């Protein structure tokens, strides 16, 4: 992965200082293939959150970006004091995991989000109280503004979305997906569908699907994981032969910083 502003070494030093993007429990990233994915190692993606209704029904994923904020998809339509943010969860069928449950005090969707085209499909959730970081709960790093990722880079996406069996798994799933150039993605999805504020990944036998929306697409460099994308949309059949589309976090980094600073 190459960044336009920071060198890999500098990025790692900054991440270490900020305490982001370095899981204490290392993920299994070798031989990993959500649809056609595999069970994640418990606690190995510590920024992954589950957004749930009050009855425990999982609706979307999200990513913890600091002790007070979660990044997700605007289309998830999270509501203040209604939906729950579950941190540190691995097995949604277990009552024995050391999870933290938070309410949301503010929901700030991008003001130019378009629910038909999925342009600017991003929302920030301010938590009702600061998260306590643990080996199973810690934030992911954010990319610098306008950072670029080389097509072909193998990144990872995680979530509890539907799998190849069209069921929603209880265990957090992970899959490795290659980044696809916007030019190739536009040939598949159409010129007007894919904007510069989107990232395409997949078409390699695995994919994001319903229920993964808002969840992370992360890339690793020198042991540091950076949130490059947030699951936005895919084919209605979640066909793993086609790339899924993610909100490009680097293109919206300035909006993220301003929103957090003013709230």
Automatic annotation (TrEMBL):
<dbReference type="InterPro" id="IPR001254">
    <property type="entry name" value="Trypsin_dom"/>
</dbReference>
<dbReference type="GO" id="GO:0004252">
    <property type="term" value="F:serine-type endopeptidase activity"/>
</dbReference>
<dbReference type="InterPro" id="IPR043504">
    <property type="entry name" value="Peptidase_S1_PA_chymotrypsin"/>
</dbReference>
<dbReference type="Pfam" id="PF00089">
    <property type="entry name" value="Trypsin"/>
</dbReference>
<keyword id="KW-0964">Secreted</keyword>
<protein>
    <submittedName>
        <fullName>Chymotrypsin-like protease CTRL-1</fullName>
    </submittedName>
</protein>
<dbReference type="InterPro" id="IPR001314">
    <property type="entry name" value="Peptidase_S1A"/>
</dbReference>
<dbReference type="GO" id="GO:0005576">
    <property type="term" value="C:extracellular region"/>
</dbReference>
<keyword id="KW-0732">Signal</keyword>
<keyword id="KW-1015">Disulfide bond</keyword>
<dbReference type="InterPro" id="IPR009003">
    <property type="entry name" value="Peptidase_S1_PA"/>
</dbReference>
<feature type="domain" description="Peptidase S1">
    <location>
        <begin position="34"/>
        <end position="261"/>
    </location>
</feature>
<feature type="signal peptide">
    <location>
        <begin position="1"/>
        <end position="19"/>
    </location>
</feature>
<dbReference type="GO" id="GO:0006508">
    <property type="term" value="P:proteolysis"/>
</dbReference>
């Amino acid at each position: 992965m190459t960044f336009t502003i920071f060198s890999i070494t500098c990025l790692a030093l900054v991440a270490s200082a900020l305490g982001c993007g370095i899981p204490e429990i290392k993920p299994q990233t070798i031989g990993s293939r959500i649809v056609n994915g595999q069970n994640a190692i418990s606690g190995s993606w510590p920024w992954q959150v589950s957004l749930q209704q009050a009855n425990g029904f999982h609706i979307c994923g999200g990513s913890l970006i600091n002790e007070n904020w979660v990044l997700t998809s605007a289309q998830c339509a999270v509501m203040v004091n209604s939906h729950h943010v579950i941190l540190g969860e691995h097995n949604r069928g277990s009552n024995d995991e050391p999870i933290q449950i938070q309410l949301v005090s503010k929901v700030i969707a991008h003001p130019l989000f378009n629910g038909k085209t999925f342009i600017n499909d991003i929302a920030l959730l301010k938590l009702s109280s600061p998260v306590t970081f643990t080996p199973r709960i810690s934030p992911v790093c954010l990319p610098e503004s306008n950072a670029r990722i080389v097509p072909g880079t193998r990144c990872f996406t995680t979530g509890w979305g539907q799998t190849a069996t069209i069921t929603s798994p209880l265990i957090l799933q992970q899959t490795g997906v290659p980044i696809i150039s916007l030019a190739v993605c536009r040939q598949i999805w159409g010129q007007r569908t894919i904007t510069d504020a989107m990232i395409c990944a997949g078409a390699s036998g695995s994919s994001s699907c319903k229920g993964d929306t808002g969840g992370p697409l992360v890339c690793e460099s020198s042991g540091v994981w950076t949130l490059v994308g947030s699951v936005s949309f895919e084919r209605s059949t979640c066909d793993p032969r086609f790339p899924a589309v993610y909100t490009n976090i680097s293109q919206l980094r300035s909006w993220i910083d301003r929103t957090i600073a003013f709230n």
